Amino acid sequence: MSQAKAALGERLFFEPRLSLTGRYSCSSCHEPAHSFAQDRPVAIGATGEALPHNAMALVNVAYNISFGWSRPRVRSLEAQMLEPLLNAHPVELGLKGREAAVCAQLAADRAYAGDFAAAFPADPAPVTLEHLVEAIASFERTLISGGSPFDRYVFNGEHEALSGQAKRGMALFFSKRAGCSGCHSGFNFSGNWRDAQGETGPAGFARNGTSARAMRVPTLRNVALTAPYMHDGRFASLTAVLDHYSSVARQAARADPRLPRVPFSSAERSALIAFLDSLTDESFVGRFTGAATAR
């Protein structure tokens, strides 16, 4: 990590020349205004082909131990980055087969040539696919969010940062009655705790009745900004998500014993949504949406 490398990675994250059509970039699916997620059910690649999954939010992605919705063995941002760049079925950015040509194009750009040289000063020919990937991964590791009302309440002791309803929702979220924190755990409200503990099944993944196989438990940070929800974007709102878990509670055989056993009441649903809303970090969103506007 270095400032020069992260700055180069930010430029490349928004660079459409990496795509087959010259009109797509990493940010086309991971939009700053949506906490680096996207407001469509599943992502669309550069050629217009639908991808299998919803674009996962990249907020606090540096804390992940594995990456993507369904591949627990992808253990670094660098390894993950090769998928959208090089995938052919379906095409995401469509860089495969064009790697040398795109690197040559960037090397011929005076500004990029200087940025690559600053980021990788020990390499006499720094504009390479490997360095491009390393730079974007470095930028993604700077996407740190920790200034939400929840954070101010819990870590800064600002007792008025959360409303009474959000505090009730927080208590419910962490209770066995709701079971939310059984999967969405830790600082990032995600599934990473099972990566280290090695519970049965893919590390950091769970079944919730929306897929035949286990899917990653995503972060809930800035979750109010990342609709639609689930791996396939099937739920348009947090209310719909909670309605789903209420319906799961009515089933005799649940996919996961940590899921709620009794449907949520209207008051419980409202309290949980108030708490989830309190995970929105406006300063994080403003940092990148302002930069995107200037860009």
Structure description:
The chain has 295 residues and is an all-alpha fold. It has 2 domains: 3-144, Cytochrome Bc1 Complex, Chain D, domain 2 (Orthogonal Bundle); 149-281, Cytochrome c-like domain (Cytochrome Bc1 Complex, Chain D, domain 2), CATH 1.10.760.10. Helices cover 39% and strands 1% of the residues. It has 12 helices and 2 strands. Strands 1-2 form a two-stranded antiparallel ribbon. Strand 1 and strand 2 form a beta hairpin.
Structural descriptors:
mainly alpha, Cytochrome Bc1 Complex, Chain D, domain 2, 2 domains, two-stranded antiparallel sheet, 12 helices, 39% helix, globular
Helix and strand layout, with pairings?
Elements: H1 3-13, H2 26-29, H3 77-86, H4 99-108, H5 110-119, H6 129-140, H7 149-154, H8 164-173, H9 193-197, E1 205-206, E2 215-216, H10 238-249, H11 266-277, H12 282-294
Antiparallel strand pairs: 1-2
Helix pairs in contact: 1-5, 1-6, 3-6, 8-11
Mean pLDDT, all residues: 91
Indicate how many domains the architecture comprises.
2
Secondary structural class: mainly alpha
CATH architecture assignment name of the largest domain: Orthogonal Bundle
Order of helices and strands: HHHHHHHHHEEHHH
Give the CATH level 1 class of the largest domain: Mainly Alpha
Number of helices: 12
Helix content: 25-40%
Q: What characterizes the major β-sheet?
A: 2 strands, antiparallel
Main sheet: which strands, in order across? 1-2
Quick one: overall form? globular
Number of strands: 2
User: Which range does the strand content fall in?
Assistant: under 5%
Give the distance, in angstroms, between the N- and C-terminal Cα atoms: 23 Å
Uncertain stretches of 5 or more adjacent residues = 194-200
| CATH-assigned fold name of the largest domain | Cytochrome Bc1 Complex, Chain D, domain 2
Kindly provide the radius of gyration, computed on alpha-carbon positions and rounded to a whole number of angstroms.
Answer: 20 Å
Determine the CATH superfamily of the largest domain.
Cytochrome c-like domain
